[in-house]
Amino acid sequence: MIRQGVRNENVCIALLHSHVYDRKGRVSVTSIANMDIHDIARCARTYGVGRFYIVTPIEEQRILAGKILRHWQSGYGSVHNPSRKEAFSLVDLKGDLGEVVEDMVLRFGKEPRIVVTGARMAGKTFPAASLREKILAGSDPFLLLFGTGWGLAEEVVERAHYLLEPIRGTGEYNHLPVRAAVAILLDRLWGR
User: Fold this and answer.
1) What is the pTM of this model?
2) Which listed CATH number (3.60.21.70, 3.40.1280.10, 3.90.180.10, 3.40.50.720) goes with 8-190?
3) Res. 49: pLDDT tops 80
């Protein structure tokens, strides 16, 4: 079990806004949601994640997200709510998944082990407890990918080293907001 205050610097998360499916099953691009930035950053900080990447190929979306980040990192928000500033210090904007992997190689000296999950994940999946064991067993960096819209496109899933089993509720309905899925998975990995 992870001791209180221990950071998981070698574990990063990325929220993909491209190479995701839309409601009709087409590969698409989604918009960045302000609440996702706030809630996932706070979850990442609470569970000691090393970095939270927001990934979109749309420059205007990165500019908008950058304004939000600056407000909380160095603007009035940083003085008004210092704990939000601390959480937002983990956030990094990237244009595509390749930039995320490059950044992690610079940080850790090797490519991350990519982990994907989603509501419709099928095939040879494994539980979060098994991922926790793999993370604790070595020094490899890990990148947990989360998709927006209707989930990660197959081309992203094919890049993964590990497929995590889906988070399931009590019935057939299974369409959690991504920020809730991030919170649940991080708690399954590191919660006490």
Assistant:
1) 0.93
2) 3.40.1280.10
3) yes
